Amino acid sequence: MTKSYDFIIIGGGSAGSVLAGRLSENPDVSVLLLEAGGSDRHPFYHLPAGFAKMTKGIGSWGWETVPQRHMQNKVFRYTQAKVIGGGSAINAQIYTRGNALDYDEWRQMGCDGWGYEDVLPYYRKAEDNE
Predict the structure, then answer these.
(1) Measuring CA to CA, which residue among 2, 23, 22, 20 is closest to residue 11?
(2) Of 80, 84, 1, whose CA–CA distance to 35 is shortest?
(3) What backbone phi and psi angles, to 5 degrees, belong to 68?
(4) Tens digits of per-residue pLDDT, 106-122?
(5) CB–CB of 33/17 below 8 Å?
């Protein structure tokens, strides 16, 4: 196993996995992707109805809030994924694009290349399931 890496990415969620994949396309660099959770091979990860099991079980850290004083001291589950694929693996297979107006505002504020029409090809590439 390599003891040094050009890039070390912590977290195998959507962003970390994509970044590791893109960086590893360059054969001249070494990439290490670290994820605390396991794989997403359990069938519940791939069934929309299974998400309730995975957000309370092996796919989540199991974090909870402190008692909320202004909500009758209720404690709420704070779901954060602990699995390769991150939150995208435990979200009931729900996906939405970002709001077009938000992207266009970013472009207007000087973020060239971040308008909705600029990022739309990347959405379409990610949505290509064929």
Answers:
(1) 20
(2) 84
(3) -95, 105
(4) 999 999 999 999 999 99
(5) yes
Residue reference for tokens 């709420």: 76
CA–CA distance, 17 with 95 (Å, rounded to integer): 17
CA 38/CA 40 separation, integer angstroms: 7
SS (H, E, C) 51-94: HHHHHHCCCECCEECCCEHHHCCECCEECCECECEHHHHCCCCC
Strand, coil or helix: 34:
strand
Distance (Å) of CA 94 to CA 46, 48, 75, 114: 11, 8, 26, 23
Q: Could you tell me the two tokens for 114?
A: 């971040």
Q: What is the pTM of this model?
A: 0.71
Could you identify the residue written with the tokens 């991150």? 86
SS3 at position 100: helix
